[in-house]
Write a structure and sequence with these properties.
The protein is of the alpha+beta class and about 140 residues long. The chain has helices at about 15-25, 95-105, and strands at about 5-10, 30-35, 55-60, 65-70, 85-90, 110-120, 125-130, 135-140.
């Protein structure tokens, strides 16, 4: 089943914001990881000391099938940050084929930010901005 959720981006205060959202909606964080936990990768620069403790990803379930997700931005990504436009629509597809179809259509006449590829966290994932300026994250879990 394909699901759609909102992904929020912050400029260093993601943990504070999600602690607040947790007090509003209740529940517990399904995941909270920091940039310092990211494994070294050839195509990514090393995380700076000022970004190491920032949130790389957090997930807060809300209700039955909805989750609120978020992260801090840092490094070169921080240059793109703009309050008020700091969100993406996250689509979790049920197959790589569906993910590729969604991504191709959403990025058509738009801008590919990160092409679809396998990730260290076990997903097939990509990011784009559509021709209307909406940010999208498309993913699917890789079946082991």
């Amino acid at each position: 089943m394909t699901t759609v959720n909102i992904y929020l981006t912050f400029n260093g205060n993601c943990e504070e914001a999600f602690t607040y959202y947790k007090s509003v909606f209740g529940g517990d964080f399904e995941m909270m990881s920091r940039f310092s936990e990211m494994p070294p990768m050839d195509n990514c620069p090393e995380v700076s000391p000022e970004d190491a403790n920032k949130i790389m990803h957090v997930t807060l379930p809300i209700g039955g099938n909805s989750v609120l997700m978020g992260s801090d931005t840092g490094g070169e990504w921080a240059l793109q940050y703009k309050e008020g436009n700091n969100f993406s629509v996250s689509v979790n597809a049920d197959s790589q084929e569906s993910a590729n179809t969604f991504f191709a259509k959403l990025s058509d006449d738009g801008k590919v930010i990160m092409p679809m590829d396998k990730t260290f966290w076990g997903s097939y994932f990509g990011m784009c901005t559509d021709k209307f300026g909406i940010n999208w994250m498309v993913s699917c879990e890789i079946k082991q």
